[in-house]
Specification:
- With 364 residues, the chain is an all-alpha fold.
- The protein has helices at 15-20, 30-42, 45-54, 93-111, 141-157, 191-205, 209-226, 235-250, 257-263, 269-282, 291-307, 319-347, and strands spanning 130-132, 314-316.
- Helix 4 (93-111) crosses helix 5 (141-157) and helix 8 crosses helix 10.
- The radius of gyration is 25 Å and the shape is globular.
Length: 364
Amino acid sequence: MGNTVTCCVSPDASPKLSRVRGGGGAAPGPDRWVDAYQAAAGGGAGSGSAEAESGDSDPGGGGPHLQHISDREFPDDLALESNPSDHPRASTIFLSKSQTDVREKRKSNHINHVSPGQLTKKYSSCSTIFIDDSTVSQPNLRSTIKCVTLAIFYHIKNRDSDRSLDIFDEKSHPLTREEVPDDYYKHDPDHKHIYRFVRTLFSAAQLTAECAIVTLVYLERLLTYAEIDICPSNWKRIVLGAILLASKVWDDQAVWNVDYCQILKDITVEDMNEMERHFLELLQFNINVPASVYAKYYFDLRSLADDNNLSFLLEPLSKERAQKLEAISRLCEDKYKDLSKAAMRRSFSADNLVGIRRSNAILS
């Protein structure tokens, strides 16, 4: 698995290009990639025009020039800096969409002189330190799902348009046997509805909080790569596809597609397989989530919780937990010192270089 494109050896083999040209109905499997390779090597009519446009043909006439994978890591139309799911410095989409509502709410409260009400957030003092049980390495499951579903809610509410694909449309591919109403695309789901849907899947499949964060990463990557919007007509199937993929990538013992059919009684395993295949193709098989991107989404979710008064459960720091945190900190510090000493031994090779001193850090 590469960062973006792994097994595409010609432009015609790109799932995004085939979707744009109307070729999204190609059959999956190894035969598809064999046909694509033969088209590139044989110099057919379709591949020849693509090579002429992209400039990949060999000037010596010896056949197409196959680009190195490093040259195809990030296509031009998907600039790295504009994709928050790929680049750690790019702002997350859900946080940007939520800021409009947050500013309007604060402005309305200021104009109408609305009191913030009773302060429920706890603050640390000299005698008592309050700390929650959610960290970037071990997030709290309930709080994380609430934040992720709130991010999805803002995606739907503040969407730019209603661009979608048939594979995600709930009218064409219903999740239940109940008849989908004709005006199903007009009513935005509220936060509680989205939370109940996601919470049911996570509880039944016993998924972790980290999987919820990766689900949001894949969701925003899909919206960016496929250039679609999450809206009332497709949000359930998009969220289900992101959860399905995240659980397989993150968990060592992933939930099978047939297991989701036991949770959602009326969906078929063939439908699940087709949706997963389309999801991967639209992601261009880029399922890599760097640690920096994961951490960015975690802290942006916490910022979203603060802006919407979704407080994490705070408890006073007990003596036992303080000792545990101190032991973990000491272990990490000793490990860092060992790595630092090894790096210095490799860096300083002069025979007369002695008496290396390092100044102590001053914490203020």
